[in-house]
Amino acid sequence: MSRVSVFARLTFREASRRRILIVALLLGLVFLGLYALGFYMMRRNFLEDSTTRSPVILNEMSNFILMAGLYAVNFLTVMMAVLTSVDTISGEISSGTIHTLVSKPIRRSEVYLGKWLGFIFLLTLYLILMVGGVIGIVKWIAGYAPPNLLFGVGLLWLNAVLLLSVSMLGGTWLSTLANGVLVFGLYGIAFIGGWMEQFGAFFHNQTAVNVGILASLIMPTESLWRRAAYEMQSPLTSALGGFTPFSSVSVPSPAMIAYAGIYILAVLILGLRAFSRRDL
Amino acid sequence: MNQPSPDLAIETHGLRKVFGEKVAVEDLTLEVRRGEVFGFLGPNGAGKTTSVKMLLGLVSPTAGEARVMGYPLDEPAARKKVGFLPEHFRFHDWLTAQEFLELHGELYGLTRDDRRQRAVEMLDLVGLGGFAGQRLRTFSKGMLQRVGLAQALINRPELVFLDEPTSGLDPVGRLRVRDIIRNLREQGTTVFLNSHLLSEVEITCDRVAFINRGKVVRISALKGLMDGGITLEVHAHGLTPPILAGLARWSQDVRADGESLTLTIEGEGEIAAINRYLVEQGVEVYALCPQHVSLEDLFVQVIGTEGVL
Questions:
Q1: ipTM greater than 0.95, yes or no?
Q2: Contact state of A95 with B84 under an 8 Å Cβ cutoff
């Protein structure tokens, strides 16, 4: 287990040395600054207008802006998960840095697992910064907090871990570029599938819903986001069946969350096996 | 395979690797004794690097059996007392030399204090003592190769694989590596040296294996090889036919041309006897020059010049 932690720490140190951490931190702070400014200005408009000054409307507005912020954070975290890890296996194989590492008295699974955990640590920090920032800003300016916060953020975290796992698996047999194409291609399928399911549910078209579910089975990222959105959106939006990118009409079931969990585990095991067996 | 032999650092039997259609290593069968410096020679594409990679667990053999330090290849313990400097040395260049060596020491399971101290010692050994705090990104090719050698020795290995260890070095660097190999042998470390610099192999190795088209074609002790073929060149005045005929007791192959004479003898011990004989016969001897058969001659003889990639 100690070897696993060596690679976890090495992964974190690499992100720090190659200035990934500092760039992500600075741009994250810029994002949060703009977000706070925009939210503050909008809320001031709402407060000045007598028709929108009611607490119910203000709360709905806060929730809507909060969900828009989390939608952006989810997307940024997904990008972080893929971009930081897409090269970690294939890059070390093609450059040859892997040779002196795995010829040590260690198991290859320790290298793979260590990297995986190191990236999870990195993504967790990023998510805490960004989600904490968005929620903190809304709470500070409007005094509003969404329902089911921890569970919802947990789903966003699971989403990042899922994409990380897929990107590391792809790296065991594809070049870095091909791997990037694969992971974002799968993400695109999940994205468009999610929308088809939404439209299908809205217009009562079962075929479209089924296609959407199929896409979610291939890649459950979008359904994780929509369940997270469902958990954190205001009860009023849920009751009205609001149809925005940041909310959910057709709600992925808890079974879909369990499926995503199993999916992550399966992808991790496949990656460990593929990396342990391939010639380097 | 039989019980592991305590005298052998490496033993392989019928080790084979096929990549798709291509046979990279057809049949690697050899034994490397503990404590010897073993040269592994062959033309480009003969399967040298793939062989080394199999022995280090980087590539899994298609068939055959092997033990390294008494352990089967798929056991991490086989690599516990083993060091490796790859041919295409590339390392995490965002680490400093000290961090890099400490990391690799940690992977070998050295304690914190031990790896810290070993890193300093190894940097001194390879002549990079003043560069501990510099990032590898700023290193030249030769410096990277040296720090790679330091990495291969950090765990006090009992067996070291060196794949073209001097390819990026200048003559001074090469001499230093030669000294390091000599010291390793004195300490009883087994060295598996993969090099195409034959003069280097000739100086450092106890035995050599020639590999061609994925097969071991010959394994020879270098000392015996050299003893077996000395050509002696003699420059002298007064070489008469009867005197030349008298040389037949040392050599069947005597060629005379005026005042110069070439003969093939069995060992250096005979040179003195030949000198005494010539002087006693009244010949004025100006020079006696023994010429060893070079490893290069032998390489060409064993591998041939055809079919080399």
A1: no
A2: no
